[in-house]
Amino acid sequence: MVKLNLKRIILFNIILVIFSSIVLAAVPTPGSSFSGLLSFFRGIFTGTATMEDAYLISFILYFVLFLAIFMEGIKIIPFFGQRGETSKQGKVFAIAAAGLSTIALFIVEQGTQVSTADRVSHLVAPFGVWGGVIIATIMAYMTFRFIHDTELFKEHVLIAMAISAAVGVTLIGFILTMDNLVGWGFLALLVSFVVGAIVAILKHREETAPEREAQRKANVEKEVERFKEKDKAKKDKKELVEEAVKKKKGIERRGMAARPVRAHLVEAINACGKLYQAVAAGRLIGNRPAALAAANNELRTLRKKIKSSVKGLDDLQNKEKGDVQKVMIDLYHNSGVAFGKAKQLKLPKETITDWQAEEKRVHEEISVIGALCGQIISNLDVFIKHHENEELRTLAERRERL
After folding, report:
1. Which domain range does residue 56 map to?
2. What global pTM score does this model have?
């Protein structure tokens, strides 16, 4: 935000530097402008006002007219929001466009030494007085729409109408080069603004004590609601922290409980490999007694480790709830299947004649048991990691909403 504001300030200064020399060259000195302004206002009440003394007021008047034109145009064209509405960007554009148009108009006037009033007079000359009246009427209507839409005087429509009419009269005076109409128009503007200010002051004083008391109570209620919202936000934040701690402990507990199960399954897979190696060593008749003894030891280890994993998964699924419990139940059932196959596994007899066939059978059964154990480990790892990420993501989203 700070960088954005800094960029805007730099851009504004660049534009100001570019246009400063042009504008300063095109307008009179401040002394002459304000002295002419004083003479003009004095002339309004004495009947001696001339347009030559109204340079600054003319600039403001043209700016207001251009602003009204651009504001109404933006409402018709849905470029800065919906049709019939004016967004903040649209208002900024209208103000900038009105300012540039007014500056350009006065620069051209200074360069050609032909006043804007004379230029407009030449344009409407073929249409006579009525041409100027029509243009002034259109501009007065646009000014009224502009004042009405901005709600400058709220429900006081007559004041907006008076100001718009004064703008129209002033514009006719400029177009027809009639100083008396310009003076009457500006006098009407002054009176309208003064009346609007007086009406606003009187309306403010007309507020009764009950209304002020009601407003005071409403303000108190707003403060109470604001305090409640802050207190609720504080409690929500505290609950979120407590929930985060609770979930973190749950994740750690689940991970600690799953580690022994995983270790038992890994040892069971290792026992499967050693069991097959022991059986394979019995291909020679002389090695069979030792090979079968080693195979029996590995088979007991295999059954013991799978049984331990079954018990561990049973404890896990009993401690969990909801979706977590369903996953743990599935893993528990898979471990039970692996344990059942381990119990059913039979080693070949020492006196068997077709040792290779028995070795192949044992290898196939061991492969199934090892695959089941490996699948349980993989699902257990994926589930714990995924569930941990989901809980942390949910907590992060709630923290952002707070």
Report:
1. 2-199
2. 0.39
